[in-house]
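Summary of Year 1 activities. Much of the first year was spent building the evaluation harness for sequence design. The harness presents a backbone, in tokenized form, and records the residue chosen at every position. We chose the following record to illustrate the format because it has been used consistently in internal testing since the harness was completed.
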């Protein structure tokens, strides 16, 4: 998943996608532990996607908090 794709998602979609990817990562790790999966680099890619999604979510929360502080200061 590219950053440009992540920017296009709504906050609710980002949260949903994080939950999906975390569940997928858990399943992949378990499958890899039981028997080697075909492409173990997919685990790294999914982990990085989760990190990108979390970064975007944190950025959006910070922006919302900053805009709320700005609005309350202007009143």
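For this record, the design step produced the sequence shown next.
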């Amino acid at each position: 998943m590219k950053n440009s794709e992540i920017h296009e998602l709504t906050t609710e979609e980002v949260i949903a996608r994080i939950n999906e990817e975390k569940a997928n990562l858990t399943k992949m790790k378990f499958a890899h532990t039981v028997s080697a999966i075909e492409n173990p680099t997919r685990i790294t890619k999914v982990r990085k996607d989760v990190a990108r999604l979390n970064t975007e979510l944190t950025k959006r929360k910070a922006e919302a908090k900053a805009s709320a502080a700005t609005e309350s200061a202007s009143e």
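DSSP finds three helices and no strands in the chain. Quantitative recovery figures across the full test set are reported in Table 2.
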